[in-house]
UniProtKB/TrEMBL annotation:
<keyword id="KW-0732">Signal</keyword>
<feature type="domain" description="Tyrosinase copper-binding">
    <location>
        <begin position="311"/>
        <end position="322"/>
    </location>
</feature>
<protein>
    <recommendedName>
        <fullName>Tyrosinase copper-binding domain-containing protein</fullName>
    </recommendedName>
</protein>
<dbReference type="InterPro" id="IPR008922">
    <property type="entry name" value="Di-copper_centre_dom_sf"/>
</dbReference>
<dbReference type="InterPro" id="IPR022739">
    <property type="entry name" value="Polyphenol_oxidase_cen"/>
</dbReference>
<dbReference type="GO" id="GO:0004097">
    <property type="term" value="F:catechol oxidase activity"/>
</dbReference>
<dbReference type="Pfam" id="PF12142">
    <property type="entry name" value="PPO1_DWL"/>
</dbReference>
<keyword id="KW-0560">Oxidoreductase</keyword>
<comment type="similarity">
    <text>Belongs to the tyrosinase family.</text>
</comment>
<keyword id="KW-0479">Metal-binding</keyword>
<keyword id="KW-0186">Copper</keyword>
<dbReference type="InterPro" id="IPR002227">
    <property type="entry name" value="Tyrosinase_Cu-bd"/>
</dbReference>
<feature type="signal peptide">
    <location>
        <begin position="1"/>
        <end position="30"/>
    </location>
</feature>
<dbReference type="Pfam" id="PF00264">
    <property type="entry name" value="Tyrosinase"/>
</dbReference>
<feature type="domain" description="Tyrosinase copper-binding">
    <location>
        <begin position="146"/>
        <end position="163"/>
    </location>
</feature>
<dbReference type="InterPro" id="IPR050316">
    <property type="entry name" value="Tyrosinase/Hemocyanin"/>
</dbReference>
<dbReference type="GO" id="GO:0046872">
    <property type="term" value="F:metal ion binding"/>
</dbReference>
Amino acid sequence: MEVDHPTSKMRCLSFLSFFVAITVLARVQAAPLQIPDLTQCEIASASAAAGTPLTLYFNCCLPIPSTPMVDFSFDKYQTVQEHIRRPAHTASEEYIAKINKAYKLMKALPDTDGRSFKAQANLHCSFCNGGYPQKGISGNIPVQVHFSWLFLPWHRWYLYFHERILGSLIGDPSFSLVYWNWDDQVSGGNKIPEMFTRVNTSIYDEKRNPNVQPPVVVPLAATTAYNQSESIVTNKNLNNMYQSIVTASTATLFMGGAFRAGTDLSNSTVINAPLGGGIENGVHNGIHYYTGDPRQELLQNMGNFATASRDPIFYAHHSNVDRLWNVWRFDMPDGERFDHTDPDFLNAEFVFYDENGQLVRVLAKDALDSQKLGIYYKKATSDDLWINYDPPAKTNVSAVPAAIASGVPYVGESPLNGTINIGTNFSAIVKRPIEEKPSKSLEVLARPQPRTAQSIWAHSTLFLLQERTETLWPL
Ligand code: C2O
């Protein structure tokens, strides 16, 4: 027989409301990035990440169209034709003429038009270099679409609209960007694509590194010298690809860590980005570094975020980054990998101009499936070479005495309990876990997330050994 127990029911109810309150509180504290108020533009700045201090200032304020912002929907932005992006070094003369025409028309639009090349470049500058404070939070914290999980979806959306604008300017809705296949160490993708080197064309930029012009292979890491034998550079490039993508087996390791409303990354730089993912901090940055012109302040154009997208090669570079996101998701030997699922990732908001010059609000989650956006990549067979790369172990015991002899302070057997002065470089032996690992498992040296900006340096010297890579990141 059923008996009513009013007291236990009430207890249940009060427990329930307690949990609801906790959940609501947790949701209030975390929130996704919102679109900033575009009337609140500030002067953007870019600073040297290392070496002689230098800061340059840029007015990257965006034109505000008279028509109100619209929300993206797959219905409204139906893909009439597939956009198939191919490797830049295989482009036909016909295609090269077409893309030049499209950029010529884009460059001819007035700066007040969101579709203009100037406004397109400023989208990147303003959301990367402090052009707009975040909305809906207290304090003046800039929007920053680098150095975190925002990096991949923001740049995918950026290319999506950029490509649609170019296509509409030449009346070709199937127009597609090309990808600079810089990871291809077999069939020539690893040089600046010839189509971008033709002086006086609209996809040429004179502010590029004169030392890494074809046939010089572009190194994928700033630490790789460009002027060594080609086989050394290509081998290091394969290793860098492997490190940036294959060993980055989790969403955080590959895409980057959490950026929520109020996250302040104004202290992050290309050489100190604790929340940045492997693809961004690794090979992506390497290409920016080596394409930018060392004769220009801050390696303009490609070498700093404020000016990078003034070079049309930027969009081909990022098409490859975008392609590699898919390769990471679906083509790794250990099976499918997964994007972040945190609601603050999925619901992060961005704003772009569409092919009518209208502002469009988009969400990160609608960029996760590139095919749904009509974007396809021609398969690059050269991927297999770095996917199956077998990296040599980078550290061994005999390296330690050499490091100490060269003056690097050495901190014990394991740095976990050492006290290290802020800013000190050091080397350390980290013990590998003793338990047997399944043969597919990898070990990685990871650093715990710093709690405050001040502790970044202190914490960046501490590493925890997780289950991943046998190739060690430099300490
Ligand atoms: Cu927004 Cu390659 O940088």
